[in-house]
Amino acid sequence: MAEIIDFAKAHDVGVIFFEELVSPKVAETVAKAIGAQTAVLSPIEGLSDEQRLAGDDYFAVMRQNLTALKAALQ
């Protein structure tokens, strides 16, 4: 993890992404160590009941991922 933190610091990483289906603990630890934020990306392994009820599909979730990536790059 120290190597990841060193790399992130050296490259001025501002956002650490993690998948919505996994624990955010490692991402939060790295983000805290470098003064960054965390954000969630969907691996699109499947839609949750909530997403299906909202009418989301593969493309909607990909657009959400793109929105998160764009925000991180600004």
UniProtKB/TrEMBL annotation:
Key words of the record: Signal, Transport
InterPro entries, per the entry: Bact_metal-bind_prot9, ZnuA-like
Any GO MF annotation of the entry: metal ion binding
The UniProt record lists the keyword Oxidoreductase: no
GO biological process: metal ion transport
Pfam families, per the entry: ZnuA
Family, per entry: Belongs to the bacterial solute-binding protein 9 family.
Protein name per the record: High-affinity zinc uptake system binding-protein ZnuA
Source organism: bioreactor metagenome
